[in-house]
Write a structure and sequence with these properties.
Order of helices and strands: HEEEHHEEEEEHEHEH
CATH architecture: 3-Layer(aba) Sandwich
CATH superfamily: Leucine Aminopeptidase, subunit E, domain 1
CATH class: Alpha Beta
Helix content: 40-55%
Oligomer: single chain
Amino acid sequence: MVLGVWPSTVAIGMWLLLGTIVISTLRAVTKIPSDEIIQHNMHHPKVLITIKKGDLFSEHSHLIIGFTDTFDTDSSDGVVISDASVQGQFQKLFYADAIENLDSQLSNTLQDQEIRSRESRTQKRRGKLDRYEIGTVVTLGAPNRRFFCVAYGRMQNNLVVRSSTDGLWVSLSNTWEAVRQHGHLLPVAMPVIGSEMARVSALSRENLLKMILLSFVAHSRQNPVTKSFTVVVHPKDFADINMLEIRAFLRTL
């Protein structure tokens, strides 16, 4: 009797084992996307917040682009503006053979802004000389796709960009106001600014991301900014961010 039952028991056990392996594998596979994207629904006001790994410029939305206080654009040899930076990629994609058009648009928009100081050519050997307040935002593009160019870092005379947590916070606040005025509540996307060229060394990429989210939520609760806000994390930086921690952080806001 026992010998008659044994093969069937083994068979059942094997099927259960195989089933467990398959289920575990499916769970692992289905977790891959969730590890690379977080979506959180705010209810007051109604906003979909997304954090994802990817390419900022594949987003079909308004874009927030980090600039410096001089609004330099020279990326000819990567000394003033690096081709690898978000600004450098933005210029290549949208102003590839027409940087003079970008400079003209920036100059026209900045006419209403006070020049904070002006460098001499002996002090700053390359690039632009007029400096504007940190947090100055220039809005470019068309109503259906705006580019919010925010000066969140100081272009030093040695052409090294520096920023600070205070400067970044002011820049974010001014950006939300510009998006509120010109974005028509359409989707907006941005990178984790401050993590590369601006060298905000006091904060890790994860904490910079938290700062961006905190600032956005705080301003959205005062007045709606957009119905859809996305932060795109560059693939090479993704390992530096604990997405489970970010998910938990969003739930506390």
